[in-house]
Amino acid sequence: MAQLTAEQHALLLSILSEQEKQRAQLDAITDPGRTTPPTYDRNNPASYDIDNPPQPPHGRLCSEIKLPSYLEWNGDAQTTPLSDILPQIERFCALQHASSPVLLATSLFTKDAAAWVSRTYKLQHLTTISWADFKLDLHTSTLTDLGAPQRLLDDIHSLQQHDASIRTYVQHATDLHNKGQTHFWLRKCPAEYWCEMLRAGLSPDLQHRMIPIDASSTFASVCAEALRVGTPLEEFCGGILEDPPKSPRPEHASPFEGLSPEESEHSWASIASDSDDEHDQTPPDASDERSASPDDFYSAKDLADWERLNLDSEQRRTARIARDACLYCGLNGHRRTSCPTAPRRNSTH
Known about the structure:
Elements: H1 6-30, H2 82-96, H3 101-107, H4 111-120, H5 131-139, H6 148-157, H7 166-180, H8 191-200, H9 204-209, H10 219-237, H11 261-272, H12 294-310, H13 313-322
Helix pairs in contact: 7-10, 8-10
């Protein structure tokens, strides 16, 4: 087939343009309510509107356009950021008068970028989604930082409380939980996954004291349970169960500061319900005869307070016998019969 000369090509375009005008006039006569489509000029890229692309014959299908390799993008934001590649694709769509700019753009994506397209869209959506929505999805995707999803998984797998306070730990776990709601598959994980993630990072002793996780547990409820159990524990013995501190600790506010009234009432009730603790919470008088030094007095009291909060009567009795402490107040240096805080029984004659 002979090649058309420039003059013949221009003449053919003018004939096609005239035919389109006549068809539009005929449509307006036969169907007055029909909206007249915008006028497009393939020779004028400025007439191209990527948010309202022309359909054939004004627009060109992707199968009719030869895609240049220099526009291919693998999703590496450090090599080629979106701020560079998107304007290039937009200019190319205008030059080619592409009828499906989103489909054309995604056909240029390779590797991680292509994988993101397959996760985010179904094939039939690529010809109907608007360019503005497509750009918004791109800018809010992980393609701007490909390492973010893996770092999130690493942070979750390595989540441990260590020396952090229970409040700091719960806040960090909550931040990871919130980030996971935008992850392409973490957001589909059941509530039990996040509950176990939070619980697994706690110390084994704290885990043992919490209510077991079941089908009714939520991430928020497990956070509240960790705070309920862990906060008084930190306040009473500094979070160290095996070796109470040997020096006086500074004055603290209420050990239940920050808890709701219901949680505080429940915690104080658990202390008051101990069968051995019929006395008040007033510390022993300073004149109490004890061989311990003032430093030891504070650590022994902390330990006794912790025992009243966390052990039942049999466990508390065993622990105090083992460290040769008073079975009533938990301090060393005297027996229950001579405990200055124990109630005295009146002799009957």
